[in-house]
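WARN retry 2 of 3 for item q-0093 after timeout on previous attempt; input resubmitted unchanged.
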Amino acid sequence: MAKKAGKISLFILLVLVCIYLFLHSSIFNISKVYVSGNKKVTSDEITALAGITPGENLFKIDRELIERSVKIHPMVKNAQLIRHLPHSVEIKIQERASWAVIPYEDLFLLIDDEGHCLDKLNKLPDGNTPIITMEKMPERVNLGQAVNQDAIKMIKTVWKSFDAQDRENISQFHYMNSQKSLLIYTLEGTEVRYGTLERVEEKATNFTEALKIEASLQKEGKDQLDYVDLRFSGQPVVKTRT
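OK item q-0093 returned
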C-alpha cells in the first residue's frame, strides 16, 4: 500500500514539474502588448509605464505591480492586465473623465468627480461644468493630485440631487473648509446657504422653489433675492434686496 502511494506521489510530482516547465517555456513568451479603453492617453504612454519587455514569460510578469504602475498616470482611474494565451498581453484601462473646474491662482484646475487634477487650463472649458471655489487650497497642486476629496464628494452628491434644469442656473459652489459646509451661487447672484449634507432631497426641492421665486421677482422687476437659507428644516429663510 505504501509502495502504491509512493508511486502516486511521484506521478503527481512529475505532472506538476511538467506543467511548470510547460508554462515557463518559450511558447508563452510575450510577443504582443496592446492597450484598450484609452481615448486621451496614448498606448505608448501606457506600455512605457507598464514596462513589459517582449520575450518575457506571460506567467512571470507581476500583474499587480504593472497595474499599479499604469495607474500612476494622472488620467488613468483604473487598470487591468489580462493575459491572452499563448503570447499576448492586454492592458485595459479606465480613463478619468473631467467633471468640474477649480479656479487656482491664474489658472483653472480641471478635475474628475473624485477631485483628481487632470489638467491646468488658461480659460474655462465650454459646457455646463461645475465651478468650485474653496476657502483654503493647497499651496501647490500637481497633475494627478487629489484636491480636497471630502469637499468634491459632497459637492458631487449635491449636484446629482438637482435636476438638469436647476444645474444650469448654478454659477458656482463655494466650500467652506472650516465649517465643512457649502454655499451655492446662482447665475443671478443669489447666495444659497446650503450647509451640510443633511436633508439632501428636501434641500433639492427647496432649491427648485428658490429658483422659481428668483425668476418671478426678476420678471416683475421688483426686489431681487439676496440669499436663501436651506440649512434648517422646514420652509427656507428668504431675504430680498431692492
